[in-house]
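User: Round two. Same drill as before: sequence, then structure, for each protein.

Assistant: Same drill it is. First protein:
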Amino acid sequence: MKQPKHNLLKKGALAVMSGFLITGAIEEAQAQIDEIVVSAQKREERALDVPISLSAYGGDQLSRQGIFEVEQLASFVPSLTFDDQLIAAGARVRIRGIGGPTFTSGVETSVSVVQDGIVTGPTGSGLADLFDVERIEVLRGPQGTLFGKNATAGVLNIVSKAPTDEFEAFGTFRFTQGDFDPVGNDYRRYRFEAGLSGPITDNLRARLSGFFLDDANGFIEDVVLDDTQNRLEHWGIRGRTDYENENFRSDLLVQYVQTNDRCCAPTFVRIDPSATGLGLNPALQASLSSKGIPLAEDNRQAINSDRIGEEQKVLHMAWDNSWTFNSGHVLKSITGYRNWISFGEDDSDKSDVLLVDATQAEINLRLITQEFQLLSPSNERFEYVVGFYSYFQRLSDRFIVGFAGNPSDAHSLVNIKNLAVFGNATYDITEQFEAFGGVRFLYEDLEIVGGRGGAFFGGQPGNNIAFRRETEEDVDWTGRFGLRFLPTPDNSIYVSYSRGYKGHGLNNSNSGPFFTSTNTANPILDPETVNAIEIGTKNSFFDGRLIANAVFFYNRFKDFQTSSFDGASNTFSLRNAGKIDLMGIEIDFTAEPWEGGFLYLGGAWIDGEFEEFTGAPCTALQNATGACPVGGQDLSGRKIDGTPEFQLSIIARQDFPIANDVFGYVSTEFSWQDDRQFNADLDPLLVQEAYSVTNFRAGVLPTENTELTFFVENAFDKVYATNLRPAPVFAGVVGGFVAPGRTFGVELRANF
């Protein structure tokens, strides 16, 4: 029987309170947890002093856990999930279940990815490799006041390491091997990262770093092409200079990353029993059976007859200049430039029969941003930041898919101009009470031009539009206001209200109303808004040896911009989802309970519901069998897609001496998540059941500057998917992005 929400809240509150009682041995600890400094409010502060639900991770911690991709980060951050896709344009992160549409350049994600102060733009362009990272901040809930309009769900803030005052050099080599049936022991991954940093003159410092990643073999076998899939080849380089004199500082960062992947291939993992005799499904099942391939959750064999893969080139630049005045005020100018080019290919039908030509996608994103900030002196009773922000985007894309001889060729150009003024302030009412608030006023001008020719999955050329232009303007605001109570300098309780806003979306999916004359739906999506309440507490006990944080949140989204994939038409359906109610509890505890011991516990309970969602997209099977209600499904009162109801992660580590000046450690990482629905049509076939993943590590530090680590990841060989979607053409069949199984490896780190 489903428990009432108030009972679940009571259980969550009891769980939070019980965490504060696990302190018995902590008073005897001698070590202290490293304090993370964050820039969530545009100035460097202790994470403890920021009244926002956030998680922050230092670069050394990420490297030690083998986290070099956002996908891996999602395993340990409360409320963060990741959706894998064929190419980077479709990948997305979600916070509290809210992410945004995929494969559509006209609609932005609801989670803003920011690297070194620069917004990385729409789609998955910002989900690049992580290397030479100082820290990553995951800010949960609306962050539009300081981070822009497309942050209704939160922000992923990536901060690179800066040049150092003293000379240093580092290098890391990592080797991973897996034994995945039927690929066998051929799966190998190599990763190398290195860098130099130090002074050039008395006022100038520089840092140069880079990485190289190569999979000698993938963990998906294509029996038709006699090849392996899901293998990667990435490399990148970053240069950074930092000039400083008495009152002026200039920080210039230039980064280039290039990838060449045969990734990411889904395999056939499920079929609805009622769909076994439907359409082309008998032929598919016969083909799989003749090759000895099971239609099962652990299937790592594909039957693609066309090439898959993606090539990316990413140039990222950030130039941060700051002037400090005698009054203590700081004026900052942050200039950004980003160019992301992607070319992807995909076997549209995923089968050994050429039913549909391979899909080709070409995307070229260019953006220029400029931000000015004026920050008041720190450590004052009244602190503030005011600023101006401009964002100019030009994104061209082209998608080719269809039948041989007359493929569909859709092309569009999306231009965005966004201008905003903002301010954020805190005021110490007394020594124990603080008020905080901020507001952002924005103007945005959107334009999309494009057209489509050819036949989309058998459609007639007459259904296409040769040229179309749509424009839309937005003028709106975001804001945040709240109170914070500090019983002591290391303990705080806060309550806040936030309003988030994301502007109009443009539905330029391949078969959507923008490109098809017979589709009379409005291609313009209404703006997405959210009203959010947070009540949180942040605490440091026993001289910093126990950090305990908890937050309760309630969000109401209106006109949420969502998408679902329809395998029958091989396209994404975009629309506004009426209203969404979202509530939950997030907790994290970090402790050093004894000498050399380290414990981390993170968890989340999230209850999300479509309060109002009429005219929702139907499932692929409903569309194929004619069971779709006229006007679409009514999903009002149903749970939203995208997030498990419960998440839990635990990290336990023990350091110990081995000999004189030689130390070792052992650690365990455990993550668990509840059932997760992957599509907004709530197709019951597209649910990943609850699963857990456990990693083990053991290391030795033979010298102060070297570390050798042995690890086993996914030690119990759990089978799970990082995404499930309807199989194109084959209604009632599911394709899954099956995650790697058990892997073994070794890593050597050295610093000089």
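Second protein:
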Amino acid sequence: MNISPLQKARYAYKPKLPAVLAKDLASIGIELGKPTDSIADKGEMKKIFAATYGKPVARFVKGKGLDAQKKLTVGVILSGGQAPGGHNVIAGIFDGLKAGNKNSKLVGFKGGPSGLIEDDFVLITASFMNEYRNAGGFDMIGSGRTKIETPEQFAAALATAKKHSLDAIVIIGGDDSNTNAALLAEYFVGKGEKTQVIGVPKTIDGDLKNEYIETSFGFDTATKTYAELIGNIERDANSAKKYWHFIKLMGRSASHIALECALECSPNICLISEEVEAKKMTLKAVAEGIVSVVAARAANGDNFGVALIPEGLIEFVPEIKVLIGELNDLLAAKAADFAACKDFDAQKAFLAKNLSKASAAAFAALPAEIAKQFLMDRDPHGNVQVSRIETEKLLIAMVEARLAELKKAGKYKGKFSALAHFFGYEGRCAFPSNFDADYCYSLGYTAFLLIAEGLTGYIASVRNLNKSAKDWTAGGIPLTMMMNLEQRHGEKKPVIKKALVELDGKPFKAFAAKREEWAVKTAYTFPGAIQYYGPAEVCDRPTFTLELEQAKKK
């Protein structure tokens, strides 16, 4: 395998740990808080998680020491989409296990949860692990989106756990994957099985967070990767002075990525899906807002600009949100009838008959190519694949049409030439930033300590992340604490609640205070590439979002 100089150097990087974890295992203790409740639907949650509900928050402290010396066999799974730092989570688990007992084993299940179901695995050795330290991607053991949800799948997972005598399984994933972890933990306890289940918070979207999970890993690296690209485009736009760049960014359910990139780059426009929904803005109103900025800049002789668009924006536009909700339920309930439609005309006729009048009208108003994207294969949860809807191109077409009307009426004299971009996969497997390399390693080491303490149904938590790594704190919180009931596949199911952009939160307020200035003035900032070596304020800094959210109230 060819190795670049940077890759070779990153292999040798030693991730930083919180001071409490950097000590000898014999001097790490644990504090347990009071019993906890789910964020909502407490009665139903107690029934679903009869054996694992209400556990206390755990925190590792300086103490008399954990019983971490026994030989353990632990399985690890990478679940869902890739995020920078996943390999370092595995490295943290591996090093923790070996520090406790050199004969402990780490089993990597390949291809995500299906590896556990099908018993497809690889034994992770020191030499194997060393090939992936501080590296991006999930290619060490692969990932997958299979959910363990049927009785047969749970039984197969149990059989694999028994076959390998697994003391624990660590599931590294997002909100759905960690919901699955909670259900698996409950199942194992209910069956009297010894195997513990621990989760680790992963998603570049940044929507898996709360008081105890300050950020999900990968968000730092991904947003800095996108911000570099956006900065490059801003520089090009200001050099050529003739293009408007519409840049769609990952973030199906929340706009955290777009907001962070706006704080990093000062674009002319950044749409925030949560604000669009809160203000009940129609698709036409969203386009009109863009038109007003384009026209104002053109009046100053600036026929160029940069607009950031969250991937999931379309789903937050009220009339489209209702349409998507109806489509999800309809196509789940009448999947066979819809599948029998032979072409797009037949599909349109089927929808016109089965959707509400308002939703049928909203669908009919969409350009045909965009409308077809609403009907592509559903995602694993039975929902519209929002990422495949080319919202950026839809908005370009609407803005272009409106500007043509204004020009005809003599109200616009500028030039509008637009280019569309989608930044997504570019950030998912990047070399993790120092922050993510350190954070992920700490999460993995914390997961090992939770296992050593005999806990199950927990997610690893590392906090105080706006400070230097030595000042971080580590522990775990019960997965049930983050859960509520939501509609999935036409029925209510327990899920971890997604964290959306808070319009009264500090990151959004910081953006809102500057956006009117950025709209008209060319005030671009250029973050440049992620730096791995140099001053800590450059190489180890967290995101603006984290710094603002964790800043002490004045």
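The mean pLDDT is 95.

User: Perfect.
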